[in-house]
Amino acid sequence: MIIGSAVYWTLPIDHMVLLAEAWDSGASTWSAQERQDYANDLGDTRSLAAVSARENRSKADQDPDQWLPSDPGALCRYIEEWTVVKSRWGRRRTRAK
Hints:
This protein is an alpha+beta fold. It has helices spanning 19-24, 32-39, 53-59, 75-88, and strands at 2-3, 6-7, 13-15, 48-50. Strands 1-2 form a two-stranded antiparallel ribbon. β1 (2-3) and β2 (6-7) form a beta hairpin. The radius of gyration is 15 Å and the shape is globular. The mean pLDDT is 86.
């Protein structure tokens, strides 16, 4: 996007723990307000992340058992932050995980 003489890049914002994963691990029992709070969580920098469009498309609605970052140097951080977000919202890994 170009505004004046400045060029701005837009990056997709991704949920660390995807909405579908939260739903599958218990968010389906949350109130509408709790689901909205989760979807718009700005209370922890690990909840939402700016990612490349390519990574966002690659991840789709998969969890860490099905998808991991393409950068090997990001694996530990991704798993740690995913686990922290799940725990922070009182969600546990689903059985398959």
